[in-house]
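Worked example (supplementary).
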Amino acid sequence: VSVVVEHHDAAVVLLVFGEIDLITAPHLQAAITLALNDRPDVLVVDLTNVGLLSSAGLTVLIGAHLKAGKHTRFRVVAAGRTTFRPITLTGVDDEIAVFGTRHEALAAG
Amino acid sequence: MNVDRNKLPETVADLRWRGPAVARRLAAVRHELVDWASRTGLSGGDVDGLALAGYEAMANVVTHAYGDQIGVLDVQATVSPDLDAVAVTVTVTDYGRWRPPPADPGLLHGRGLPLIRHMAHTADIFPTPHGTTVHMRWSLPHRLSTHG
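After joint prediction of all chains, the assembly is encoded as:
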């Protein structure tokens, strides 16, 4: 997995590429933790280019949401079946704000 | 069984993998499963689902079956004609003992088995004192023709 960090006004976007499995999930977790340490208003994790989102990845997303707390609005971009299906089928979207595109995630204020 | 299988428009040989139940081996096995499943005629969505469900079943073995030991992981994938459909099955077997899941796994855990059950058309888990088998199945419309 690789993560590209983009800085927008008050938002940080993590553009994730690859597969999020048992081995790579800690890398994503580290990138998210690093981004949250700066306490951005909004943190968007964009999974558009992710081909596998395993339960280890879902755990990272939930953990990030809990860690973001009140300081940072944590958002996920997931549209494809490899990411959106695992998120919705396990109810993770009940906990986390999920958007179809990065534009929508950033425009949500 | 082999005779029936030869009638299929495209014969897909079984996929069998046996190796150590360690996380770093799983990505390669998952990619083999994807290549294999792509040849069976399953839809793209089911191929993705099979890849994820298969991965989760293997990850369960790595995480839960052997404690601190490294044990054996067996993966088998087969296509077989059935009465009114073609069955694509993936079986993941270990020879350890899963730790019992907590009554309330909390927000952070417990999503592997739900993913398996959602992604597979049917999924069964057979725990025994000598190991656990996860059996996942997808159905294809019947491709055998009596006129062919």
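Two points are worth noting when inspecting this output. The first helix of chain B runs from residue 2 to 6. The helical segments of chain B are 2-6, 23-38, 44-65, 112-119.
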